[in-house]
Amino acid sequence: MQRALVAAVVVGLAAPVMGTYLVQRRLSLLGDGIGHVALTGVAAGWLVGNAMSLTPHDALAIPGAVVAAVIGSLAIDVVRDRGRTSGDVALALLFYGGIAGGVLIIGLAGGTTANLMGYLFGSIATVSQADLVQIIVLGALVLGVGIGLRPALFAVSHDEEFARSLGLPVRLLNMMIAIVAALTVTVAMRVVGLLLVSAIMILPVAISQQVATSFRATMRLAMGVGVLVCVSGLVITYYRPLSPGAVIVCLAIAVYAGVAALRPLLASRARRTDPSRGPIDPHPDHPDDVLVARSAACEPAGTTTRE
């Protein structure tokens, strides 16, 4: 339970950091696509471990997932950058190819699809000491890059042309975001599973955007929400025999629904106490087609222009 608790805290902190950048870049499903590719890496690690007679046979599963996820994320970034294939088609290639490759390779390794279930849906209760060390190291790397390079990563995520005009290495920063997103997927796969890993990256950010007014505040609040739902889900499954990944995701969705329901009440109360905030936007998810007094009302839905 102690190892699972530490893993849940690390994932709760690290996953929303990269999720904030993916939401800003309108690539919320990228984590899902990388997760599917990581399944091929898990099976490849299993195959190599079996050939080397390692015990357990999945000792190289996480390193294999890291390699496959990084290659997959870079491939989709290259495809998106060259523009010959649309982003959704590139994601579809990752979805189908990742699942098919994982099932095929695990069969060659002498295993069955049942051996992949723990990675598909998460098995935080079985996190070993070696897994925990890898999760902590990768989580620290994700937090270091995501928080330490936040101004530059925010600039390239919000407006590449503006970032290029500032002299920033846009291509390098894009590749860095893709690589760190891949590392985040491999960190979170033992907690919520590869099929649900994108949820723990995106849902805390979606919750935070309901109340936060800047990119920095969104990231900080998302990290707090991520830790809260991961630890709460783990505690619930400690007393009830439920899937931790599914419980964590359902908790996050419940929090999102609660905040979305209370948001009009909070905004109305804030407007009464501060008339300068102006009227409430009746369609916050749709960009306005005319300029109004408050510049924030003109921001595209799901993005933040203030760092």
UniProtKB/TrEMBL annotation:
Entry keywords, A to Z:
Membrane, Transmembrane, Transmembrane helix, Transport
Q: Where are the transmembrane segments?
A: 60-79, 91-112, 132-156, 168-185, 191-209, 221-239, 245-266
Q: Where in the cell is it found?
A: Cell membrane; Membrane
Which InterPro entries would you find in this protein's record? Answer: ABC_BtuC-like, ABC_TroCD
- PANTHER family, alphabetized: ABC-TRANSPORTER METAL-BINDING PROTEIN (PTHR30477), METAL TRANSPORT SYSTEM MEMBRANE PROTEIN TM_0125-RELATED (PTHR30477:SF0)
SUPFAM superfamilies from the entry?
Answer: ABC transporter involved in vitamin B12 uptake, BtuC (SSF81345)
Stored Pfam families: ABC-3 (PF00950)
| Family recorded in the similarity comment | Belongs to the ABC-3 integral membrane protein family.
Q: How does it sit in the membrane?
A: Multi-pass membrane protein
User: What Gene3D superfamilies does the entry give?
Assistant: ABC transporter involved in vitamin B12 uptake, BtuC
Organism of origin: Litorihabitans aurantiacus
Per its UniProt entry, which superkingdom is the organism in? Bacteria
Q: What is this protein called?
A: ABC transporter
Query: Listed GO cellular component terms?
Result: ATP-binding cassette (ABC) transporter complex
